[in-house]
Amino acid sequence: MLKNYYSYPAFFFYDNDGVSVEFPDLPGCLPCAEDEESIFRNAREALGLHLFGMESDGEDIPEPTPVSKLTPEPGAVVAMVDVFMPPVRERVNRQVVKKILTIPSWLNKEAEEAGVNFSQVLQDGLKQSLGVQ
User: Fold this and answer.
1) Could you tell me whether strands 77-84 and 5-15 are parallel, antiparallel, or unpaired per DSSP bridges?
2) Three-class SS string for 1-56?
3) Is the dihedral of CA 45, 48, 52, 54 positive or negative?
4) What is the pLDDT of residue 123?
5) Which of 43, 77, 79, 116 is the most buried (most CB within 10 A)?
């Protein structure tokens, strides 16, 4: 069962050219931003997308390491970053994809003259074929 809420510790590194973040429990989740105002938003978004990818791939999602057991590099600031997953999942699942298809020229001409919305016809046909709404 998917969790709705996750909270993970993160290491924040401040430098002259911006802020970078590392999630010690989630290798590869490495957001950054130009300023402190943006970094927390970017960290939350990166965390949500990273966890969504893990969920989609059927990967085990690790338990967060307690902050008291972390040993950050010198200069790192430790903060908890949380994310509420239902809006992340909805936003990602609502994305559209572009498909290229081939139809006879005469059929294309007739459909264009009739003002057919090709995307809608394809969606309707796929839904009917798959028996979904």
Assistant:
1) antiparallel
2) CCCCEEEEEEEEEEECCEEEEECCCCCCCCCEECCHHHHHHHHHHHHHHHHHHHHH
3) positive
4) 86
5) 43
Please return the burial class of 49, using the count of CB atoms within 10 Å of its CB with bins 0-12, 13-18 and 19+.
middle
Q: Per the confidence metrics, is the pTM higher than 0.85?
A: no
Question: Which sign does the torsion angle of CA 119, 125, 103, 107 carry?
Answer: negative
Phi, psi of 82 (to 5 degrees): -120, 160
Please give the average pLDDT of every successive group of 10 residues along the chain, which has 133 residues: 95 94 96 92 96 95 96 94 95 84 91 89 88 81
Amino acid making up residue 54 = M
Burial of 89 (C-beta count, 10 Å sphere; 0-12/13-18/19+): middle
Question: With contact defined as beta carbons under 8 Å apart, do 43 and 30 qualify?
Answer: no
